[in-house]
Each structure stands twice: as C-alpha cells, then as structure tokens.
Amino acid sequence: MVTRIPGITKPTATDLPVLKPFLPRAHPVLHTSAWLAGFSPWMGLVLFLPLMLWPFASHAAGNFTIIDAFGTLWNWVPFLLKSGFLFNVIISVFAMLIGTIAGIVLGLGQISKITITRRISWFITQLFRNSPWLVLLFIVLLAFPFEITVFGVIIMIPDWMKAVIGLSLPIMANISEIVRGAIMSVPTAQWEAAESLAFSRQQILWRIILPQCFKRMIPPWMNWYAILTMATPLCSLLGVEEIITLSRQAMEAENNHPELLVPFYSFALGLFFIYCYPIARMTMYLERRYAVKI
Amino acid sequence: MTSKTTEVIVSIKDVHKSFGDLEVLKGVSLDVRKGEVICIIGPSGSGKSTLIRCINALNDIQAGTIHVCGIDVTDPKLQKLELRKRVGMVFQQYNLFPHKTALENIMMAPTLVLNEDKETVRTRAFALMQKVRLEGKENAYPGELSGGQQQRVAIARSLAMNPDVMLFDEVTAALDPETVKEVLVTIKDLAQEGMTCILVTHEMGFAREVADHIYFTDNGVIVEHGPPKTFFTKAKDPRTKEFLSQIL
After folding, report:
1. Which among A196, A199, A200 has CB closest to B58?
2. Does B99 touch chain A (CB under 8 A)?
3. N vs C: which end of chain A shows fewer Cβ within 10 Å?
4. By the 8 A CB rule, do B205 and B187 touch?
5. In angstroms, what separates the C-alpha of A34 from chain B's closest C-alpha?
6. Is B56 on the interface with A (CB under 8 A)?
7. What is the interface pTM, i.e. ipTM, of the complex?
C-alpha cells in the first residue's frame, strides 16, 4: 500500500496501519459549492470570453460584424435582466422559501416518535429527492389548474408560480434530509441530559437540539440555493418567462443570426456565475467556520 | 449516620435489564434512605451505570420494580417528567448545553420546566454558582470552562431543580487528577447537607470517606454491600477482595 505521509514528499510504501492525518473535509453534500467556490473570481471574465471572441470567429462567415453582435446584445441587456434574470431570482427565492418551510416540517417528521409520520416523511423525502427535477416540473405544470376559485374569487396561477412549486419539491426533500442529518449530528448525550432535567420532547428539540445544529444547516442550505438557482433555466422548457426563454425570443426578434447564439447564452452563463459564485464562496467560508466542534 | 431518617426514598427490587441478548442486570435490589449517600462500585461492564440510569427511566427494565419518591418507575403510564423533576442526574461527559452560558444552563430547566419566575431562578442560579465555587464564571460558555468547572456547572444545573435524589454517573472519570478533587469537594458538601446521593464511582478514597453504604456489583448482580468501614476491611466475597486488591 502506498501512503503519503505529511511532510514527506516521496510516496512511502508501507503495509503498517497508518493513522491518516485529519483533513477537515467539506460537508459531503456541498459538492456544487465546493466546485464553484474552487474557481478564481476571474472565472466570470473567462465565461464572458466567448461573448467577446465568438463574433471574431464568425465574422468571416457573414456580414454581421462584432459591433453588430455586441450592439444587439447591449440593446437587449436591460430587458434580459429586468424581465429575465430577475424572474430566475424571484423563482429561486420563492421556491427556496416554500421548500425550506416544507422541508423543515418534513425533516422533523422524519424524526417523529410516531412511526407512521416517520415512515411517510421518509417516503416523501426519498421520492422527491430522487426524482428528476424536470419531470417534477412537468407534472406540476400540467397537473395544476391555471386558476383556482377561493370564496368565489378567481385567482390566476401564472406559470412562474407553478414553476416555483415544482422546483420547491426537490428542495423540500433535500432540506428535509439536511434537517434530519443536523439533528442526528447532535450527540445523544444532549438528549439524555435534557431528558434528565425533565424537559419535554418538544422543548428538547426547539430549545436545546435545534439551536445547536441551526448553524450547521446553513452551509448545505445555501448550497441547495445555488443548485436551485442554476436549475431555474429548466423552466424555459415549459415556456416560463425567464432569462433563457427571453434570450431565445430576443434572438428570434433579431432574425436568428447564428452569430448571436454564443454571445447571448454566454451572457446568461456569466450572469449565473456572478450570482452563484459569491454564494458558493460564502457557503464554503461558513462551512469552515461552523465545522463541528464538540 | 444517626441523623438519617429511615424513610426509603429509592427502592429497587429484583431488577432485570437486557440489551438484546446481553443481560446486564440480573436481579438487583437495593434501598436508599432519605439523606443517605450510597456508592456503587465494581469493574466496568458490571452494570453500575445501567442501574442508575434505570432510576430516572433513561433505561427501561424488563423485570422487577423501582420506586422513587413514591413514584412507580415501572408503571407503563409513568409520568417521566414528574419523576425527573424529583431526580437530578450528572453525567460523566458533563453534557452542558454548549449554546448557553453557565448561568443559562442552570436557569433553563427551572424556568421552562417548572415555570418559575425568572428573577427568582436567577437569584438561585447565582447562589448555586457560588455553592459550586464558580462565582464570576456565570457568563462563560461551557467551551470556555475546564472539565472540572463544567462538571460543577452540571451539578449546579441539576440542583437548580431542587431534586430529592441526585444521581452521579462516574462524574469524575473524564477529569484530570487535579480537577477531580474540586468536583468531589462539591459532592461532599452536598452529602453533608443531607442530599440523598447515589454515586457510581471509581474513587475509592472518596467512597470510603463520604458513603454511608457501598454496593459492589459484578456481572449484573450485587456481590457484596455494607458500610465503608466493614466493606473495605472485611470483604468476604473473593470477587470483592480481588477487585479491591487491584484498585486500592
């Protein structure tokens, strides 16, 4: 067996049992944030690079110049931001809000003393955690009515709101797992100490256990927010107005010049990076700060 | 010992407890009178900790009866909270709530469980901090305190509930030799004030000095018991003798 020993540059061969150095590792569920935060901040510029270079490459092919491509995009930028990306943000915020509230309820259900509650919560969690997001979105979009009547008042449900519900389902399931995992991470000795002081189960959970693991839930929670935001373009497949849908419409309005494809989509990619990168960095920072200390 | 009343406060009769196939307690009986201090000693794995955890229903038992302050612990309709208001427990690993200060740790249970007035509890908590000789550490978090200090806060936390019985589960086992003494002094003070104490301990010197009665458990049964004077000098059972010869 070849093992690396810290401080020794050469790989050392040993078949003795070696106590590996302790490496504080990222939370196992933080893959996305760890990957995203691993980039240098300049990556944002790199993502915009095709935006600037593509027109050069395609310049020779037609009479659509780099200036034209830029100018076209520039004209559309305010629209893409205000009617497009803003909706991605709105969808992600609301989906996160609903997903978090439902996820906390479901997560607490998973540790309920009542067996049936626990089983059902577990099943719902696993179901939505392991379903393809796009399928969930389709089901919600097609199954939900476009209007509901409450006390005789007809309330229209816009598509973006359905998208919010569709996206909040997988978020709910993953938050449920985060809550369950965080509660499980508190040593059982804390439960026993609290029980021996005659606290009720409710009190133990809300006054003693949850306040201790609340901080530990924040990094994985933010991680899921970044994943969710990056998943919002899925809604474009369903015709919900967001940046990708609008980019496509804008390009159509500009006579579908193929030279526009890369600049427009790179612009969207860059926006997502600019929005999610700080979240990922913050996530990793908090993860290091709140690393379990017992 | 003459001052002790004869009222039995904890009565354990023929208790059996198994974890799966492993039988940990095989018929243990003992009585504790009000104001008495008893020490349970014995090799590890002999069921000492399990026994005292049964007293406040942290562990359930398969057979036998336990009565604490007139409450039947084996009653299926047992009001666990009522029982635990009467019985305080201190653990080996302190188990203070890390997100609360020392004072808050002490105040939490009386205010939330007993619904006592916050200011009254605060006054009592300060007095308890003084009693365990930790004045000035009220606003320290458990992480800022040494093991011995944390354990004394844990004792104060249990005392704040005004329990009738205190259980100590190897409370000095995780401490440095120098800090063991400060915790033992605190327990000794309590014992002298007439608190009924049940201790699981490895501190033989302490047991000899403070205990009214010593129980030696091995392999899930009480092998021998008696007042410290006779127990330490005139042990009859060979297992007790062997254990004492190793530890003394």
Report:
1. A196
2. yes
3. N
4. no
5. 28
6. yes
7. 0.90
| Inside any domain, residue A9 | no
- Say if B118 is an interface residue toward chain A (CB within 8 Å): no
User: Domain for residue A42, yes or no?
Assistant: no
Domain of A235, in residue numbers: 64-289
Instruction: Say how many domains are in chain A.
Output: 1
CA distance B120 to chain A (A): 18
Q: B7 in contact with A at a CB cutoff of 8 Å?
A: no
Q: Are A167 and A137 in contact (CB under 8 A)?
A: yes
**Per-residue pLDDT of chain A in tens (294 residues, 90 and over written 9):** 455 666 666 555 666 776 766 555 545 567 788 888 888 877 777 766 666 666 565 555 556 666 777 778 888 888 888 888 998 999 999 999 999 999 999 999 999 999 999 999 999 999 999 999 999 998 988 888 777 777 778 888 888 888 899 999 999 999 999 999 999 988 899 999 999 999 999 999 999 999 988 888 888 999 999 999 999 999 888 888 888 988 888 888 888 777 778 788 888 888 899 899 999 898 888 888 876 554
B201 Cβ contact list (under 8 Å, min separation 6): B39, B40, B41, B168, B170, B171, B172, B207
SS3 B89: strand
A180 contacts: CB under 8 Å, gap ≥ 6: A107, A110, A111, A125
Is residue B174 less than 8 Å (CB to CB) from chain A? no
Is A7 part of any domain? no
| Within-domain flag for A141 | yes
Selecting from A190, A192, A294 the residue whose C-beta is nearest the C-beta of B97 gives A190
User: What gap in Å lies between CA A89 and CA A206, rounded to an integer?
Assistant: 31
Q: A-chain residues within 8 Å CB-CB of B143?
A: 293
Instruction: Give dist(CA A124, CA A246) in Å, integer.
Output: 34
Nearest-by-Cβ selection for A198 from B93, B99, B109: B109
Touching check for B58 and chain A: CB below 8 Å?
A: yes
For residue B81, give both structure tokens. Answer: 């909270």
